[in-house]
């Protein structure tokens, strides 16, 4: 049966879901979505916190872990290892048969508290890569300034990377250049370029949330509301095309290298006045990924429209950034604030995750 997710694939876009839980895997929901065209899974601390809190699926494992371990982070990693491995195995056939190397991936996030510590991030990336021990694992590295050398080093070691928390065009380009440096080092050291891949997770809806807030503070300019995020993403795609072209890239590609594809993250609609699937429908194009929350995925399967939209209105997108600057919305400050908030929010989610593990431990002791 042809589904909207299959239609996305026909237009060159891979559909992933930003959702993971043991129930999701064991009840067969993930496998059924894969049959309907789902091609990848991403996870984050908030998702794991909700999964652990939602029922008793983890209680038996938690009892065993708590008998020997008290550190909530180590307990979480043991839980994550089982779920991420199971998701990787469910998607392995997709991974093995995807010639574009866009399908079959599962992402696990580095501790966001390490976002500004390059050496600690590199060490954690290697640890997670070895812990999961699956070829279709992406380790998520924040695209902070400290994260850029970690991206390069991880790729040079042959570890696939999902660069997360990208908001600005400059940082998106910097992440791509870090990836290219890593590829060159891997090649020069005799590594197999076909064994690594990367996506650049470019966040979308949060940009409109912050830009619209600033427009409200300025007053007026209603015509600009809800327009910066899509323009920003369309320009990021143009940057991707420029970076992964030309003689230098063609030499790497001939050796088996994959480009660092754009992944549209934060595609759920935050403003109820906007169409619920607009950040999916407006960013459909070849060699890209759209990762959706479970709710947005269901909405898109129900009423999403599929067309090649990513390269429509590129000139207008460029002028859109100029119009925001003209009315007093500082693009660089918007994206810098969003990066800081993104790191802080993920760190807070990690703490909530650890608190949930502690709460579960107390529940199990009393039961």
Q: How large is the count of helical segments?
A: 17
The largest beta-sheet arranges its strands as 1-2-3-4-5-6-7-8
**Helix content, binned percent:** 55-70%
Distance between the termini: 47 Å
Strand content: 5-15%
Report the C-alpha radius of gyration, rounded.
20 Å
User: Low-confidence segments, ≥5 residues, pLDDT <50?
Assistant: none
- Largest beta sheet, briefly? 8 strands, parallel, barrel
Quaternary state of this entry equals single chain
**Category by helix and strand content:** alpha/beta
Return the CATH class.
Answer: Alpha Beta
What's the shape?
Answer: globular
CATH superfamily: Aldolase class I
Taken together, the total number of domains comes to 1
Number of E strands: 8
Element order, helices and strands?
HEHHEHHHHEHEHEHEHHHEHEHHH
CATH fold description = TIM Barrel
Overall pLDDT score = 94
Provide structural commentary:
An eight-stranded parallel barrel has the order 1-2-3-4-5-6-7-8, surrounded by nine helices. It has a single domain, classed as TIM Barrel (Alpha-Beta Barrel). It contains 17 helices and eight strands. The chain has 367 residues and is of the alpha/beta class. Strand 3, helix 8 and strand 4 form a beta-alpha-beta unit. It starts with a helix and ends with a helix.
């Amino acid at each position: 049966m042809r589904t909207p997710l299959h239609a996305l694939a026909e237009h060159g876009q891979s559909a992933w879901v930003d959702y993971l839980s043991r129930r999701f895997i064991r009840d067969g929901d993930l496998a059924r979505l894969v049959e309907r065209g789902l091609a990848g899974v991403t996870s984050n601390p908030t998702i794991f916190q909700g999964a652990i809190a939602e029922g008793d699926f983890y209680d038996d494992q938690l009892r065993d872990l708590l008998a020997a371990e008290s550190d909530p982070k180590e307990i979480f990693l043991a839980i994550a290892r089982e779920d991420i491995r199971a998701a990787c195995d469910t998607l392995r056939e997709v991974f093995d048969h995807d010639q574009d190397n866009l399908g079959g991936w599962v992402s696990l996030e580095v501790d966001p508290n390490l976002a500004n510590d390059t050496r600690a991030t590199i060490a954690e990336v290697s640890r997670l890569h070895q812990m999961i021990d699956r070829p279709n694992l992406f380790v998520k590295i924040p695209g902070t300034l400290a994260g850029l050398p970690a991206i390069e080093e991880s790729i040079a070691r042959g570890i696939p990377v999902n660069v997360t928390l990208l908001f600005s065009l400059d940082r998106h380009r910097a992440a791509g250049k870090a990836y290219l440096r890593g590829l060159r080092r891997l090649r020069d050291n005799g590594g197999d370029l076909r064994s690594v891949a990367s996506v650049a997770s470019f966040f979308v809806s949060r940009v409109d949330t912050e830009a619209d807030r600033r427009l409200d503070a300025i007053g007026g300019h209603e015509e600009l509301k809800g327009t910066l995020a899509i323009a920003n993403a369309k320009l990021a795609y143009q940057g991707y095309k420029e970076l992964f072209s030309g003689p230098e890239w063609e030499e790497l590609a001939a050796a088996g290298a994959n480009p660092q594809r754009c992944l549209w993250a934060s595609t759920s609609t935050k403003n109820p006045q906007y169409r619920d699937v607009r950040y999916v429908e407006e960013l459909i194009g070849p060699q890209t990924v759209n990762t959706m929350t479970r709710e947005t995925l269901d909405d898109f399967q129900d009423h999403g429209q599929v067309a090649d939209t990513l390269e429509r209105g590129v000139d207008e997108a460029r002028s859109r950034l100029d119009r925001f600057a003209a009315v007093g919305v500082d693009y660089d400050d918007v994206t810098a604030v969003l990066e800081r908030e993104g790191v802080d929010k993920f760190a807070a989610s990690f703490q909530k995750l650890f608190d949930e593990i502690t709460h579960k431990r107390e529940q199990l002791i009393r039961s």
